[in-house]
Protein 1
Amino acid sequence: MKLNLKAVLLGLTGIAIVLVMLGGLALSLDERIRAAHQRMDVRTQRLASAGVPLLLNSLVVGDLASAEQTIDNLNVDRVLARRAALRERRTHPHPRRLAAPPERIERSRLGPALHALKVRETRISIAADPVVYAVLAVTPSSAPIEAELWRRSAPR
Amino acid sequence: MVPLIFGVLNQQSPALTAERWNPILHYLTAVSGVPLVLKMGPTVDETNAMMARSVFDLMFTNHNFQSEFDGIGYRVIARWAGEPIRTVIAASADSPVRHLRELEGKAVAFPSKEAFVGYAVPLVALRSARVNVSEVFAGNQEGAMAQLKARRVDAAAVNSRFLSQYAEREGVKFREIYVSEGFPELAVIVHPRVPAATVDKLRRALIGMADDPAAAPVLARVKFRGFAPASDRDYDGVRRVYKQTGQ
């Protein structure tokens, strides 16, 4: 009887330790994913913003081939999952209201349930007020972030 | 109603040109009821080629005063308001070059071979002073000043208005080595296919812009005083200089 109580206590303590460790790991991963999302958003914004003046130059003179080339050059590191799309090529005094950007879930090799990375489309207006030449819609790739998380999580 | 195509000479990058001209064209469209849309080529040569092909219904330029465009029949309906424009050949503030003759053999940036104050006028001045320079064509005035700022050339020839705007924007000081006589600001010209009634509406909207309180925010934003009345005869001096250079 004594032995059984000891075993139960030991077992419960072990389970508690495992639960605390798992909880800590989950919290840490959640924090990392959140930080990774922020980095991904900043990187996408920075990339897209860098290309806006060049794209505006091309679109004002109607040179769509150069605009396409600029977008390709921006994505040499494959930071964007879906090639940036110029959603509108109409000039109008006020930009039309666009539908809310879709959210996309990429399956992660870190485990589908906990680590699914949601990537949101970013839209940047390419305009010389009051004319909107195009709206650049870019969807970042979660691959670089996954690689980074994988590197940090993998045993050394 | 199909919008009329308003061409603008490449004095700055297309993006900066659109930032300056879209608010103006938006205002003119609202006041005159004649829809206008900005169009230009990626380079001065291409914009001029478009003018030669009669792509533009209206245009802001002075390159039409070259004899090669005489046959098209563009007419002046207004000009950019303000003091006459002059060619300035500028060097860096710390440059040892102080006089035109000291530019002998040196690299000088020009916007393009087609430019009036940026090339034709300084060319006549340099020829008169018997100074030979190494010509560098930068595409537009912005490019010419960028070459000077980066010290890839010893001097740059641009128009006086542009130089003061550039110096203010970039926070850089330049020394003026040569300043030409004054010429009227660039003209707004209209193609002969545009109906007289439309031309009249546009002319009134252009000239009235300077005194219209509704235009004040646009004028302040693009830093200009509006348009002034002008006719083809005001540009005889421009034609004379182009002829002297064989253009």
Note: The interface with chain A takes residues 13-15, 17-19, 22-23, 26, 37-42 of chain B (CB under 8 Å).
Protein 2
Amino acid sequence: METDAAAIAEETANGNGHPVAEGGDAARAGDLAHLGGVLESLLFAAGAPVTVARLVEALGGPGRAEVVAALEALAAGYEREGRGLRLARVAGGYQLRTPPEHGPWVRRLLGQRPPRLSRATLETLAIVAYRQPCTRVDVEAIRGVDADAVLTTLVERRLVRIVGRKEAPGRPLLYGTTREFLELFGLPDLGALPPLREVGEGADVLTAQDLTVGPGGVAATPAASEAAGDWPSDCRSS
Amino acid sequence: MTAPCTVELELFRGPLDLLLHLIKKNEVQITDIPIATITDQYLALLEQRPDLNLDGAGEYLVMAATLMVIKSRMLLPEPAVEDDEPEEDPRADLVRQLLEYQRFREAAAALGDRPILARDVFANPPAAADPAPPGEAVPATAHEASLGDLLAALREVLARRRPPPRHEVGEPERSIAECVRMILARFTLVDEVDFADLFAPEAGRHEVIATFLALLELIRVRVVRARQEQRFGAITLALAVADVAEATARVRETGHRMLWGGGDDGDGNGRCGDR
């Protein structure tokens, strides 16, 4: 996430004439740096992730494109100069965060307990995140254990919320992840979840002889595609 | 995180987790489970736990039954094929479930490896991901607890109080002087005492009131200080003097006669009786 923004920003900075030589370019770069400073103040004061729209609104002058360019330049600056902050894209906005390599010292200073993330918690969160909206039974079907207590705890910790009821017998509750979930794991949005690994060993079912080479190229025989159909091909329901 | 290799059911996050462990241990493909071996090992693990409580192990027992069904189906000769559908491998369902579980286990591990807020990365203000555990002092602006704060805390104590046993007859009421000694005695071992801890849950209303009055007097004569970290928070008591000896001396010196029971005990003057 940070690196994305940084990489783009590096490009932008170079493209816009960095190091700056003369004239209008210099003025523009100066403006951008000034804007970057203001944005830094806004993000520091806000603490929580702020959307670009709200930043534009607060600034009341520069357009969206300009703000994004300044944010990217800011992010690149943090990386380049090895500063103690990073500009992270989190939960639909931008947030100043400490880099992970400084974590141990910050943790020691604050003396806080880090959030507890047991395997059961992480597994349940992963299932809800990739399969949302999903029911308790969906989670239990995958983990093979009772999920009631874990889900209750996750709802209490506001990492998971009830998003509705499934139109099925008993109208079971449907669960989804929250903004706090994105913040905890430093994700810009759900699309940024690492792709769920394709069912690897399941591919064994598709052996070479199931493939035929026809005029249209390689195609799976009906038998093969049927076999493949047993496996859920798409991990993420939208 | 990884526990030592003693076999404890609690180490496994359910029967699927345990099965994956066995599959890995036997170095076999999930898609080609030696069902006889795995079933035997699985049952052996269950048997190592004589104290299996059904509540926690129900899922394990269901899996054991499933494994045995699969095993027996694989032992049986295939029935004469009636239709064109080839008989599905009895292990197929289990394999599907294991593969699916494994995918999410990997996804969970990937999530856990991300830079976690309040563990690896920090934002301003620091996210209170976990409430501060009790016992860890929160450096907040503590203030001197007011009478209102003390009364609010007293109401809580009274509300929490269990009804006293019915048939205790003739137990002398505890005097305020006794309560003073009791409170001061608390400070011989520790520097701070929680307000709520002064009151035993089974203490009668009378004793609670007597203790509270004793405390108010001790605060009034500046022997004890009551502090509160935050509004409606817990109230902590500490000696305002060097030690218990000095506190006792101060009480005798400046306190009301009622506080230390007067010249001698037994005259009943100090009793806080309401009869």
Note: The CA atoms of residues 171 and 254 of chain B lie 30 Å apart.
